[in-house]
């Protein structure tokens, strides 16, 4: 933690930091639960991740406003790893990604973020948004028992093949949640986090009153959420597992680095401050090495929570620390009540998150250009959706690299013609 941020720090700043931390903590709880469920793992792991990542990045990160935790960008990647290799191997891949992030930091890879093509970022982020949105359709419709697949088109096929099993009570519950979110945002556009919480509480409460036991809850599918924090346990790492999981770990590390540094850059623009990319990557590396020891999934800086932190008047890492402590207190005191939350109530929350991270305006703008960047965006988007994020980013980068070399070759030829 950079102690310079506490120069001229006052009781007023402390109050603002604590208030902001509580507000962000309120947002983080439903998102932590939702992202874990969407990734195919136990909901409580999302809370463990929020607590550990939120605390450590506030202390060790390179951006004093950064809020870290599970994010939507990881959902398709983590779900793919869980389906292919299992949860324990996901923890190992997360640990390995932490080591890679520290290597990236020492090699000053963070300085290259400004050169990463925006068409690729928009393409894979829009693809991720579509996967998250479509992944919540089964919960919205009450199709909780259907098979989950690694690929988008197979999941859509599974949904259509099971439409005759839809639960009208789940649809009603999800619709109530969505309506509550939209009504709150209509009257108070800045209350995004509060709209999520109210949506879940109102829809679950009304559904429990009018048609109890007619819909699935977190508890009925995943069991009661434990009211304790886990003891540290080191994953069982073998050479075979390292070799098998290295590509997945590399993708996670790239995603963590990209998302965290882009979020830090947004924070800089909003606050006229300057983050340390090297320190941020080292902090995120340590975070992702420690969270698996507490059953946590990969984490990164998250833009919605970081922006909320800034808009609520945060001025130091105390806000991030408060947010982690608040979630811990809720876990230790109120965890059993989370088991009663309707799964259908979480679906609209993640759908709204997907809509907000879709970069729809930038997507439409680049497509309208009808340029090489449009091709890169569509290619990255399509491959992210129909294959996986690794292939989407890799092919997008190859296209950009080939385009750059062709462009340089033409420029060299023109120069030779002029000199000859």
UniProtKB/TrEMBL annotation:
Transmembrane segments: 18-38, 67-85, 91-113, 120-146, 166-187, 194-212, 242-264, 325-355, 375-406
Chief location of this protein within or outside the cell: membrane
Superkingdom, taxonomy of origin: Bacteria
Cited InterPro entries: SLC26A/SulP_dom, SLC26A/SulP_fam
Location(s) in or outside the cell: Membrane
Membrane topology qualifier: Multi-pass membrane protein
Entry protein name: Sulfate transporter family protein
């Amino acid at each position: 933690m950079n102690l310079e941020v506490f120069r001229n720090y006052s009781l007023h700043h402390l109050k603002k930091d604590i208030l902001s931390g509580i507000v962000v903590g309120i947002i983080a709880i439903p998102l932590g639960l939702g992202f874990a469920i969407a990734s195919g793992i136990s909901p409580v792991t999302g809370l463990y991740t929020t607590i550990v990542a939120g605390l450590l990045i506030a202390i060790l990160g390179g951006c004093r406003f950064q809020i870290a935790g599970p994010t939507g960008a990881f959902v398709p990647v983590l779900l793919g790893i869980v389906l292919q290799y299992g949860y324990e191997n996901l923890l190992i891949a997360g640990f390995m990604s932490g080591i890679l992030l520290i290597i990236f930091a020492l090699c000053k890879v963070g300085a290259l973020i400004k050169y990463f093509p925006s068409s690729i970022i928009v393409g894979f982020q829009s693809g991720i948004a579509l996967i998250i949105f479509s992944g919540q359709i089964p919960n919205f419709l009450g199709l909780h028992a259907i098979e989950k697949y690694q690929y988008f088109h197979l999941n859509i096929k599974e949904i259509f093949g099971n439409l005759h099993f839809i639960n009208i009570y789940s649809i009603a519950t999800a619709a109530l949640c969505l309506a509550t979110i939209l009504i709150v945002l209509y009257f108070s556009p800045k209350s995004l986090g509060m709209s999520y919480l109210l949506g879940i509480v109102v829809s679950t409460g009304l559904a429990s009153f009018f048609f109890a036991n007619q819909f699935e809850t977190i508890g009925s599918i995943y069991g009661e959420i434990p009211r304790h924090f886990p003891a540290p346990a080191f994953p069982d790492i073998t050479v075979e597992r390292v070799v098998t999981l290295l590509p997945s770990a590399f993708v996670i590390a790239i995603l963590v680095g990209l998302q965290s540094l882009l979020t830090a850059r947004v924070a800089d623009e909003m606050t006229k401050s300057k983050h340390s990319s090297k320190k941020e990557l080292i902090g995120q590396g340590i975070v992702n090495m420690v969270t698996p020891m507490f059953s946590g999934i990969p984490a990164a800086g998250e833009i919605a929570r970081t922006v909320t932190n800034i808009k609520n008047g945060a001025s130091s890492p105390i806000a991030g620390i408060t947010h982690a402590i608040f979630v811990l207190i809720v876990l230790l005191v109120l965890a059993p009540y989370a088991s009663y939350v309707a799964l259908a109530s979480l679906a609209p929350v993640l759908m709204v998150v997907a809509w907000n991270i879709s970069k729809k305006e930038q997507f439409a703008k680049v497509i309208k250009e009808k340029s090489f960047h449009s091709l890169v965006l569509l290619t990255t988007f399509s491959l992210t959706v129909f294959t996986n994020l690794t292939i989407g980013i890799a092919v997008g980068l190859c296209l950009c690299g080939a385009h750059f070399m062709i462009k340089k070759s033409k420029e060299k030829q023109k120069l030779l013609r002029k000199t000859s």
